[in-house]
Amino acid sequence: MEAIDVEHDGATALIRISRPAVLNALDPAALTALLAAVQDASADPRVRAIVLTGGTRAFTTGEDLVSAAALETDAFRRQIDDFQRLATALRTAPKVVIAAIAGPAYGGGVEIAVNCDVRIAATNARFCCPELEWSLTLSNGSSVLLRRLVGEGWAREMLLLGSVLDAHDALRIGLVTHVVEPGELADAARALARQAASRPPVPVRLTKELLNADPRGWEETIGAEADAVCAALAAPGGRDRLDAFASRRR
């Protein structure tokens, strides 16, 4: 069985991590395949939305530590760099990326999830950042992204104490935005993906670029927003929806 499965459903690319024996932990081969799948979906003009999942038993526990423990220092650094490339690919994908999370999302699993645009969790989902227990630290931009999502207090609780949160805890603090039963997770994620895919691609890309921008001054922010609005309207077909809306109002 392939470690990474890719299924296309209309304008949605469903990427599934499939290493159930190790709770979808990513060894170097699986990580390389996952990065390639995300990059391919991002570059495919037929794809308007991406769903990343691990099925109903586990999302992913991030790096396969059994495999990683056998790596020499240089190889270990290369694997960390590959994880960072995956995070960057998810964060900067010009399409909406939805994480559909069931079972444990531990360590790198949380880090991967926070780099997605939307997170939906099954009731059996569990979230934990146990990196310090393994003599590791957080990566993949999560030192910034987790704090943005859940606030300073909860980010420090998760990262420094390794507290385990269930799906409803995650919903309450803003780590996820939807909670469903495990058997409903795939359909719920596909529904969100169809909603995302109905949006025109250029404004989606430009909106994500604005949301992903580092903090900047007010004048720079409003200038970038004005540029993005004009660029979206100037894209092929960019005025069609606006004109259609105006015609209906008239």
Keywords:
six-stranded mixed β-sheet; 2-enoyl-CoA Hydratase, Chain A, domain 1; 250 residues; 2 domains; 9 strands; alpha/beta; three-stranded mixed β-sheet
Molecular structure report:
- With 250 residues, this protein is α/β, with parallel strands linked by helices.
- It has two domains: 4-197, 2-enoyl-CoA Hydratase, Chain A, domain 1 (Alpha-Beta Complex), CATH 3.90.226; 201-249.
- It has helices spanning 28-43, 65-69, 73-92, 108-114, 142-161, 167-173, 185-197, 201-212, 218-234, 240-249, and strands at residues 4-9, 12-17, 49-53, 96-101, 104-106, 118-122, 126-128, 165-166, 178-180.
- Strand 2 (12-17), helix 1 (28-43) and strand 3 form a beta-alpha-beta unit.
- The chain is globular.
- The model has no long low-confidence stretch (mean pLDDT 92).
